Amino acid sequence: MFGMGFTEILIIAVIAVLFLGPDKLPSAMVDIAKFFRNVKNTIGTVKSSIEEEMNVSDIKKEALAYKQELLNASEGLHKASDVKGTISSYLSDDLLGDDDEKPLVAKAAQKPEEVTFKKKTKEDGINV
Q1: Sign of CA dihedral 118, 121, 124, 128
Q2: Is 68 among the domain residues?
Q3: Tens digits of residue pLDDT in 56-82
Q4: Which domain holds residue 104?
């Protein structure tokens, strides 16, 4: 016990009997035993608390990862279900503008092209 041999324990017991006397020695031994039991329980409690805290930090990390996945899925679902926004962006990008970035309304105000069936030459501006 504690790296002590039998003779060392016997010497400590004799000194304790001489110091405390035979009437106080049993109560002192009970108090010492309670002290060691309390120390043992405290160490066990601290150990379990540390293990619990380590486990709680892992659970927090997993919860944050799940939360991020849910936010990403929610954002994707919102984008997929936003029909009005999708249509308006499609209309504004594709139908209201062309390569020259002129709106369709402005193009309608211009003179319409004439449709003919004759072949255009280089002089007309079309490469044949």
Answers
A1: positive
A2: yes
A3: 778 888 889 999 999 998 888 887 777
A4: 6-109
